[in-house]
Model the fold of this input.
Amino acid sequence: MGKTILKLIFVGLLLYVFLVSIGLMGEAFKGFGKGFAENLLNTTSNPFVGLFVGILATSLVQSSSTTTSIVVGMVASGVLTVSGAIPIIFGANIGTTVTNTLVALGHISRREEFKRAIAGATVHDFFNLMCVAIFFPIELATGFLEKFATGLAGLFVDFGGLKFTSPIKIITKPTIHFLEHLHTDHLPFSNTVNYTLVFVTSFILIYIALFYIVKVMRSLVIDKTESVFNDIIGKSSLIGIAAGLIFTVFVQSSSITTSILVPMIAAGIITIETAFPITLGANIGTTATAMLASFALGNPAAVTIAFVHLLFNCLGVLFIFPIHAVRRIPIRLAQGLGELAYKNRSIAFFYVFGLFFVLPGILILISKMLN
Done:
């Protein structure tokens, strides 16, 4: 009993290190990417460019909540129209999945774990890519999301602002800022080099935390935990969606929710099928930050774009998840990518940096050159 308690305490400490490392990685990207991302958001005359800008900007700041909150502010100030902002919101939904996919790379030295981790992380990617593939052309042709969101915004425009602070951020922020300033204030390098070193430190911490979390969780094993997740949540997808939604609203980050799932999938404690509904709930929960920000502004256009994000994520779940054959598509694609990464681990790196950074960057550059 005493050993079990000590192991649980150790898992708690490792989880804290893991959460700090994710936050530190976010700060690293913001350090050399936020200004660039904000400049990108100002150049969205073409809806397809807006989509890729949303992907790249969110990948750089590692948070769809940050991107959508910036977009809400820009729409409120008249810098962006609602129509111009919608493709960015679509892109942000793809870009937000980069964090948990980067976390999966931390399992690279253990091949079987790596296969499961990549599959567990990228099911979120493929689901969001499917949603964009379905709804983006429909929105361009009909504007149905903008119309629906405008109607809802009229009901909520005077709702008033609420502020909620994530407890996860409260306990991790001091350590994150200490480690960040340790690099930026005491190393004699440029800002870009310093933040690159912050990123390297965060990745090392993620790797160490993941290694020991999986090891300790397996030693606990967690037959009971496996039973709780796979028998209870696995049998009721609605419970999984609700759990993901509530936890994400609570911590104000879908990246934290989905990244916590990755080591559990890698360890074999939960299956990708069990984790999938939790991921979908996190997808809906992540819209809460921008909703609160828009209510605080009280601007009809800002509230409209926040509702667009909420509706897009809800409709994605409603259209894809109820049909068994359709909801199996992102799971099978993710498992296929996991198998490829198992055979050739470099594929995972090409996938992450190609999809989230290189491809959207090249397409934005080509668009600017053509203009």
